[in-house]
Amino acid sequence: DQKAASSPSLAPTAPAAEKGGSGKMVVAALAVGLVLVAAVGGAVASGQLELGDAPAPAPAPATTPDEAGLLQAGTVEVAELTESRGIARLIVQPPGQAVVDIRASMGDFKESWNGAGRLELIGLEAGTYKTKVKPRAGGSAMRGTLEVEPGSDCTYIFDLKQGEEWQKDCP
Known about the structure:
The protein is of the alpha+beta class.
């Protein structure tokens, strides 16, 4: 028993977890740092994060078909906007009271819209677009045309109470 009391302790002076622990913590911190740098770099490269004074522009909301397969209010990029293409914003008054079919006179563009809110068509080829506006309350469908000019940026309003033609407003 005396020998056990006088012999030096075999217990380590520091717990095993602490030995080399600070090196493992440095490696872990570096790994986390590299992940953060990669994430920020990826966000900058993808355009999700811009560096500098100007805030990033908000992306235009895209429209999706509703349950009936009709486009909802929002933005549709038909094609890249160029000098030979234009922008058409469509509004039905009162909103949501008609279904609108839009077809190019010459070409393959055709869409159907639920008439709610505002539908923005970006990159429409210049030309004439025929529309059929069908009131949801019933009655005869009304026909109208949209004239899209090269480089135009116009709003077209169809008033169901007048039901004659789209009123064109180009700034």
